[in-house]
TrEMBL record:
InterPro entries: Pyridox_Oxase-rel, Split_barrel_FMN-bd. It comes from the Eukaryota. It comes from Morchella conica CCBAS932. Gene3D superfamilies: Electron Transport, Fmn-binding Protein, Chain A. It holds the Pfam family Pyridox_ox_2. This is Flavin-nucleotide-binding protein. The lineage of its organism: Eukaryota, Fungi, Dikarya, Ascomycota, Pezizomycotina.
Length: 265
């Protein structure tokens, strides 16, 4: 498959404000989604048929999800992927998806990389990465695909964690867990990097630059030192956990520092 796969630009996903920051590239979008620990999933609850005065109600839920392809498991983030979302069997969004061909969803992912401090309050900003997915979600019924998605999502927390646990899940665990698969119809990303963008009227105002500090405060997620549970019987933190914590912390900090010094976007 093409290494330059992009989502088509439509009226749904087109970025209008600061469109120079927009990206429709699959790799950019998928990486942002996969790097975001909590996705915010929007959907609409239909009006109550027992209450004529009720109206459809917009809802939003924090959910755990990951991009993947059950049909082509060797696919990577450059390829066409679905978004798998982990949910409880009786949650509202799962109940809405049950017995229908699909429900429309919007998934939002955001990572903050820095606080951008400018000369004036109005010019302050964030360095950030954000992605929006639109599509139709269906319940995953096939047990093999469900296990694939559960492993995918588990390993998104700590790589290879699935194989270091008691697997496979038992019948009760499989029954209490539901997976939604979002078939993406459109998607876009928006990314800001770099230092402040002050207006000429402020940057050229006598004495202002000598008075007000401007710049970027890098922001990044940091994983702490692993804390064993009260029931833990393993003497040392497994190498795969410790190595991941160290590598991720280094990568997150390096990224935040880099974008803070990059060319403005």
């Amino acid at each position: 498959m093409s290494r330059e796969l992009s989502y088509p630009k439509t009226t749904t996903n087109k970025v209008n404000r600061y469109n120079q920051r927009a990206s429709y590239d699959a790799l950019t979008i998928h990486r942002i989604v996969n790097a975001t620990s909590v996705l915010h999933v929007s959907f609409v609850v239909p009006s109550d048929p027992k209450d004529p005065s009720s109206a459809p109600l917009p809802m939003i839920l924090p959910m755990i999800g990951q991009m993947g392809s059950f049909d082509y498991p060797s696919s990577d983030e450059t390829d066409a992927l679905d978004c798998y979302l982990h949910g409880y069997v009786s949650s509202r969004i799962i109940n809405l998806a049950r017995g229908v061909e699909g429900i429309p969803l919007c998934v939002a992912a955001t990572k903050v990389d820095g606080f951008v401090l400018s000369l004036t309050p109005n010019s302050h900003s964030y360095n950030y990465r954000s992605a929006i997915l639109h599509g139709t979600a269906t319940l995953v019924i096939d047990p093999a695909e469900k296990l694939y998605a559960m492993e995918l999502i588990t390993n998104s927390v700590i790589p290879d964690r699935w194989n270091h646990t008691r697997i496979p899940p038992d019948e009760a665990e499989m029954s209490s867990t539901s997976i939604l698969k979002l078939k993406i119809s459109s998607a876009s990303a928006k990314v800001r990097i770099g230092p402040p963008m002050d207006e000429k009227k402020d940057s050229e105002r006598p004495g202002l630059r000598e008075k007000v500090w401007t710049g970027v405060v890098p922001v990044f997620e940091a994983l702490g030192v692993p804390i064993p549970s009260l029931d833990n019987a393993v003497n040392e933190v497994p190498e795969y956990v410790g190595v991941y914590v160290e590598k991720r912390n280094k990568a997150e900090k390096m990224h935040a520092d880099l974008v803070g010094r990059s060319t403005r976007l």
